[in-house]
């Protein structure tokens, strides 16, 4: 078995979760501010650095912040008014509980998980074939989060749902997690050694990134250069997937399947004939035949509804060897199945390949009580999404090259709370949102210049970090403000109309056919198809991540194309017109009332005196549509304080 140095064993993230005593304070103001242990740990570190927390944000700021945070949508004017008017001591707690119970909570927080597991509805690479039933996995995640499914159950279903119950539809859908990675189809037969190796690599790497916060993939070619992960660890984890293969489970009667296959075979036969002719042609004749090929290819029938899942096939179990430089031809010693040694300890035996229910065994080990990483990693992800930065700023890397925790005791407290609450997320959300740490203003007159010098990125949380909305929040917010949002839950993904110039760049342009029902085009961004080779321009400029790799944390860049898209893009123009129509309908013809309503919808507040005078002057010479477009470009709309 591998051996580890004392320093490797001492690394903080491999140590057991240990709850330190909650800090206490003598000053009355400090005792009053530290409402719960979260506040106490934050305040202790601030005082150590000579800093003090910011005052509480105003009520309008708070209701906008928490609503966007928990649902991805801005609050309605009625929701803002209700909270501002409610002076009961538990008013804030009731807002938090309402948002946690909202179906929109699952929609918003599912997006975070889909980023981590690099959810895509196409295969990537040159062909980028569509996976028409992958949307069922997305809906499974939304449903699981809304029902606050315990995390061990959530993970186990994704790793081994097919093993748990092969006849349970939702479990089979959950197991589609194994197939979310990109896959190269132009290599031909997917069972050849090179292609199979790529598939197993995808399955293995995501286990390290998503569940363990370990850069497991760095040990594919050699022992990890920085962390206590041996190359043998990597391939022993890969062993849990050696018997795992794709399975699409039809949801249609056998007669329909036979008719579909007949049509498919007919078109496929025609395509092969055209291919044979193309080999003998050049010039204009070849171009004409290529057009004929594309036209015939478009006649291929749409895939029948099915469950996008996996199955075990012990007879086809792939032998697992250590591979020099990760090359499938350079086979070293054969290995079985075992978790990483630094976490598993010396007593856990290596299991032979082909052992029954291998992925269930991996999931059971992950939550056996001796593994400190899943609780820490998930608690850190939750903190990261609430504050824009994790206690560990590298959520997928808890190793030596990852960031050190800013508040290690707090992270362990959160991890312990998470486990103690039965691995339910909603109680942890609630504790964070009820803290004074979360309710701080974005500016801090108490610490001022000193805080900005000592901690310019607010990692110590001496004030709330101002955040720009992400791509989905911006688009969904524009839909909501303009009154165009279609709040329908779940179902097949939507393809929006896209410029022909972009569609024609695809290897198979016929795959992008806009959804016929125009009402579907106004669905939440969660329900837009995640195509790897075509990201919607509006979403891409606002840092929509590439779906080829796990995205632990969204970037938030600022550049000229964002302004151009917001000012001149089709999405902005269309929704600005809809907002103008809403202002006329709900505020009447009076410009002052239209301005007030526009600000309340987009920023949750009334305009300042200066803003109102500027808007009135603008409307004397410009149409309401241009004013509506300006409203959707306001920093007060695009950022949350």
Q: Number of helical runs?
A: 29
Number of strands: 6
In helices, the fraction of residues equals 40-55%
Shape: globular
Distance between the termini: 52 Å
Mean pLDDT equals 94
The number of domains is 3
Report the structural category. Answer: mainly alpha
Major sheet, described briefly?
2 strands, antiparallel
Spans with pLDDT under 50 lasting ≥5 residues? none
Rg of Cα set: 27 Å
Protein model, in words:
By secondary structure, the protein is mainly α. It has helices at residues 6-10, 28-33, 37-48, 59-71, 77-85, 91-101, 103-116, 135-146, 151-164, 169-174, 193-212, 231-238, 254-278, 283-297, 341-344, 358-366, 373-387, 408-420, 425-433, 448-454, 471-482, 500-503, 537-541, 560-568, 570-587, 591-603, 609-619, 624-631, 635-638; strands at 244-250, 306-312, 321-323, 331-334, 467-468, 639-640. The strands form 3 sheets. The protein has a two-stranded antiparallel ribbon with strand order 1-2.
Q: What's this entry about, in short?
A:
The protein is mostly helical. It has 29 helices and six strands. The longest helix is centred in the middle third of the chain and has 25 residues, at 254-278.
Topology of this protein?
Layout (H helix, E strand, L loop, with lengths): L5 H5 L17 H6 L3 H12 L10 H13 L5 H9 L5 H11 L1 H14 L18 H12 L4 H14 L4 H6 L18 H20 L18 H8 L5 E7 L3 H25 L4 H15 L8 E7 L8 E3 L7 E4 L6 H4 L13 H9 L6 H15 L20 H13 L4 H9 L14 H7 L12 E2 L2 H12 L17 H4 L33 H5 L18 H9 L1 H18 L3 H13 L5 H11 L4 H8 L3 H4 E2 L1
Antiparallel strand pairs: 1-2, 3-4, 5-6
Helix pairs in contact: 3-18, 4-5, 4-6, 6-19, 7-8, 9-16, 11-12, 13-14, 17-18, 17-19, 21-25, 24-25, 25-26, 25-28, 26-27
């Amino acid at each position: 078995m591998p051996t580890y140095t004392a320093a490797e064993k001492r690394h903080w993230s491999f140590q057991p979760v240990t709850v330190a005593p909650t800090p206490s304070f003598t000053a009355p103001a400090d005792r009053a501010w530290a409402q719960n242990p979260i506040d106490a740990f934050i305040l202790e570190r601030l005082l150590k650095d000579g800093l003090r927390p910011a005052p509480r944000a105003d009520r309008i700021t708070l209701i906008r912040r928490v609503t966007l945070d928990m649902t991805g949508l801005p609050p309605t004017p009625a929701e803002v008014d209700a909270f501002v008017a409610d002076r009961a001591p538990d008013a804030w707690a009731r807002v938090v509980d309402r948002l946690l119970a909202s179906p929109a909570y699952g929609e918003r927080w599912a997006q975070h998980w889909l980023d981590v597991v690099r959810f895509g509805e196409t295969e990537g690479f040159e062909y980028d074939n569509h996976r028409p039933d992958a949307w069922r996995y997305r809906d499974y995640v939304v449903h699981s989060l809304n029902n606050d499914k315990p995390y061990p159950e959530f993970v186990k279903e994704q790793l081994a749902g097919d093993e748990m119950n092969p006849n349970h539809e939702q479990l089979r859908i959950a197991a589609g997690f194994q197939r979310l990675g990109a896959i190269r189809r132009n290599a031909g037969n997917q069972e050849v050694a090179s292609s199979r190796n790529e598939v197993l690599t995808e399955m293995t790497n995501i286990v390290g990134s998503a569940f363990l916060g370990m850069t497991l993939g760095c040990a594919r070619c050699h022992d990890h250069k920085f962390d206590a992960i041996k190359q043998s660890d990597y391939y022993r984890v890969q062993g849990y997937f050696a018997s795992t293969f794709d399975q699409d489970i039809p949801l249609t009667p056998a007669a329909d399947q036979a008719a579909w296959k007949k049509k498919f075979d007919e078109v496929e036969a025609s395509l092969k004939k055209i291919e044979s002719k193309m080999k003998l042609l050049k010039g204009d004749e070849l171009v004409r035949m290529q057009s004929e090929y594309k036209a015939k290819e478009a006649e291929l029938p749409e895939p029948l509804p099915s469950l996008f899942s996996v199955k075990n096939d012990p007879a086809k179990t792939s032998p697992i060897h250590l591979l020099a430089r990760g090359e499938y031809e350079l086979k070293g010693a054969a290995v079985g199945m075992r978790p990483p040694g630094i976490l598993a300890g010396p007593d856990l035996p290596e299991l032979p390949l082909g052992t029954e229910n291998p992925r269930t065994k991996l999931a059971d080990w992950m939550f056996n009580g001796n593994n400190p990483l899943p609780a820490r990693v998930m608690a850190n992800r939750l903190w990261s999404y609430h504050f824009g930065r994790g206690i560990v700023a590298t959520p997928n890397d808890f190793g030596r090259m990852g960031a050190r925790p800013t508040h290690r005791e707090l992270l362990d407290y959160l991890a312990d709370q998470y486990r103690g609450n039965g691995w339910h997320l909603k109680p942890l959300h609630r504790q964070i949102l009820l803290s004074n740490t979360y309710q701080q203003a974005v500016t801090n007159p108490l610490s001022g210049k000193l805080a900005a010098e000592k901690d310019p990125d607010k990692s110590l949380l001496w004030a709330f970090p101002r955040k720009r909305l992400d791509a989905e929040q911006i688009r969904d917010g524009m839909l909501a403000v303009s009154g165009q949002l279609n709040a329908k839950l779940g179902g097949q993904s939507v393809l929006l109309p896209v410029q022909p110039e972009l569609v024609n760049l695809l290897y198979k342009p016929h795959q992008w056919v806009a959804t016929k029902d125009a009402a579907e085009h106004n669905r939440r961004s969660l329900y837009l198809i995640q195509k790897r080779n075509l990201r919607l321009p509006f979403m891409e400029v606002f840092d929509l991540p590439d779906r080829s790799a796990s995205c632990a944390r969204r970037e938030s860049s600022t550049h000229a194309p964002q302004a151009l898209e917001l000012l001149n893009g089709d999405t902005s123009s269309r929704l600005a017109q809809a907002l103008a129509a809403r202002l006329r309908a709900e505020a009447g013809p009076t410009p002052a009332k239209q301005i007030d309503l526009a600000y309340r919808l987009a920023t949750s507040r009334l305009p300042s005196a200066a803003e109102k005078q500027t808007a009135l002057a603008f409307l004397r010479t410009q149409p309401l549509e241009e004013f509506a477009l300006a409203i959707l470009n306001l920093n007060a709309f695009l950022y949350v304080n």
